[in-house]
Write a structure and sequence with these properties.
The structure is a single chain. With 479 residues, this protein is an alpha+beta fold. 29% of the residues lie in helices and 30% in strands. It has 11 helices and 22 strands. Helix 6 runs antiparallel to helix 7. It is globular, with a radius of gyration of 21 Å.
Length: 479
Amino acid sequence: MKRMICAALCGALALGTLGLAGCSGEQERSRYAMTLEYFPETRTLEGEMTADIVNTSDTARETLLFQLWANAYREGAEYRPVSDLFAPAAYYDGASYGGIVVSEVAGASGFRVAGEDENILEVSLREPLYPDERVSLSMTFTVTLAAVDHRLGVGENAVTLTGFYPVLCACNGTQEHVYASLGDPFVSECADYEVSLTLPETYVAAYTGTGERSVSGGKATYHVRADNVRDIAMVCSERFQTLEKSADGIPVTYYYLDDASPETTLAAACDSLSYYASAFSEYAYPAYTVVETDFPYGGMEYPMLSMISADLRAEEVPLVVAHETAHQWWYAMVGNDQFCEAWQDEGLAEFSAALFLGKHPEYGMTYEDCVSASEASYRAFFSVWTQVAEGENTAMQRALTEFSGEYEYRNVVYDKGLILFDRLMETLGEKKTLSALREYARGYTGRIAPPEALIACFSSRGSYAEGVFSSFLGGTCVI
């Protein structure tokens, strides 16, 4: 689905079926097996990958589309990964570029780089792939990493590897997205991963999944497995220190650089993981990792792994950790179209973090503090926006590329998102609100949930909830 089609879907709140609804449901998963080696002297990652793709749709496929997120870092990219506002902080040594070159796709009749911004690998199949059938494609690729503190790159203290491989587009390899410098444009269906990463033995790697480390000939190799995850992330550093703890039997590991109070950070991760498991649904994975790393924003989520910025102030850490941990439910376990419906996971993560802090005052914030801060921020934004914007738009259902910048995005998606769920709880009460979220989590774990699925969980507990959603998402409510 191209960007303009996606944008059209974002503009409508319909309780009928949206495009992603057809992607949902219990189904077989695709599998990715990768052998990788990182060479620090050239900032390159050499990779071989076998993608075992299953057709979970009800139509035959003659081509499959894979996202090439790494190409957003190339010179001349139209949709750059870092905005002008954050570029000076992210590119610590001046402009730097990267990208991905796919040199071979075996098992296909042909392939080409396509998409609006060289962001798609289009693979032509040798024969149609019918429903429930599988095809195995072997790819060879080289990723050049930019010198940048970001999701993918060589940072000042760590090498971050996310979005580095060709990954099947959502909706069974048909829905395209361009990169966006704000928000998270990644929309992926769950798959199983086996990854082998080799790099100099001086590096320690944090990663999505569980695995083992072996050392030979001056190199370390990590053998990692992660099942039923939307993507895989690895962060590698020669400076990492680690702390470990358990949360309800789940091992939680904190990899950190210069955290003055790592015990507090790890405690926030464990406490929030336990709280969400009790409030929403059982944590679906066998381990959880938090990584302090080079990052220009507060944090970033991946399945079983959360990144937090090394630049956070001590008082900010618990909130950021709680927010990113909430994404293990709202994004990792329960997926959504983050490109068109960013409020659906970001608003829920903000609300979840506020609920957690309300139950854990030892971290220095209350639920009321979180809501008040979001209300003050949003009202200040709205006051400014009505004076400077022509035909100001506060609708929440918009593609990431339709926001003017970080200021608008943050206030409309995060702050207004928290306020939305606070107003729903005021209307329904805490008991019904948590019941709705439990139904949503348990019904859509492992799936991509359309927004009407979330709305229906609330509306079944009070018909007026649909009106609250409509007024917020459509931009007609007064805060």
